[in-house]
Amino acid sequence: MPVAIITGASKGLGRALAEALAARGWDLVLDARTAEVLKETAAALAGHGTRVTALPGDVTDPAHRSELVAVAWKLGGVDLLVNNASALGAEPLARLEGLPLDGLRRALEVNVVAALGLVQEALPLLRASETGTVITVSSDAAAEAYETWGGYGASKAALDHLAAVLGEEEPRLRVWAVDPGDMATDLYTAAVPDDGDPRPEPASVVPAFLRLLDERPASGRYGAPSLLEGR
């Protein structure tokens, strides 16, 4: 069976994507910081009959990243790496004039440095796979200027560029930066707690990710809404 590592997988988009892959028979290595929630997620997904390993930890910890890849290797390798774990940099979001610099460092460390570190750790196994794929979860804040989203958007823009360069440097792999669009997630609630407008559930955008995996277009940046419209 194909093997995927998914970070930030205990809830939201990470869990929804893990659920869809488990239903397709994928074996999974799941990461999140909240051990109990991650354990519950893994138990639910194991009901699909696939092997699901939950490894709670912080992706900024090199030892944790090594453990994620080591467990995937024992399952058979790494066919897909999904860098989904994210940090806002400030909760709620703040204008740049008041953005805590330690918060910005945390966003860059989680969203960029740790994501690249995990790619580096997994690259030998990704190269060995016939369908080696890296997905980095982006944001429209990486490409558009929104007040208070400067720190988070800057980190996602940096991640987008790393993904683009990785796609050039590793032509045998597929490397997709995917903007999922608006979603009802804990991350968004923490970012803008006063926004009561209804937003789509994360599961609604998962078909866009599955379409990429099924059709395997060229490496690049893709928007989930466009992929869903083209179904």
Give a description of the structure.
- This protein is of the alpha/beta class.
- It is built from eight helices and seven strands, in the order βαβαβαβαβαβααβα.
- It has a seven-stranded parallel β-sheet, sandwiched between helices.
- Helix 4 links the parallel strand 4 and strand 5 (133-137).
- It is globular and about 50 Å long.
Short description:
The chain has 231 residues and is α/β, with parallel strands linked by helices. It has helices spanning 12-23, 35-45, 62-75, 101-128, 150-169, 186-191, 206-215, 224-229; strands at residues 3-6, 27-32, 52-56, 80-83, 133-137, 174-179, 220-223. The chain has eight helices and seven strands.
Structural class: alpha/beta
The coarse silhouette is globular
Cα-atom radius of gyration:
16 Å
* Separation of the first and last Cα atoms: 26 Å
Q: What is the strand content?
A: 5-15%
Helix content class = 40-55%
What is the helix/strand order?
Answer: EHEHEHEHEHEHHEH
How confident is the prediction overall: mean pLDDT? 94
**How many individual β-strands?**
7
The poorly predicted ranges are none
What's the number of helices? 8
Major β-sheet annotation: 7 strands, parallel
Widest sheet, order of strands: 3-2-1-4-5-6-7
Features:
231 residues, alpha/beta, 7-stranded parallel beta sheet, 8 helices, 46% helix
Helix-strand layout with pairing:
Layout: E1 3-6, H1 12-23, E2 27-32, H2 35-45, E3 52-56, H3 62-75, E4 80-83, H4 101-128, E5 133-137, H5 150-169, E6 174-179, H6 186-191, H7 206-215, E7 220-223, H8 224-229
Parallel strand pairs: 1-2, 1-4, 2-3, 4-5, 5-6, 6-7
Helix pairs in contact: 3-4, 4-5
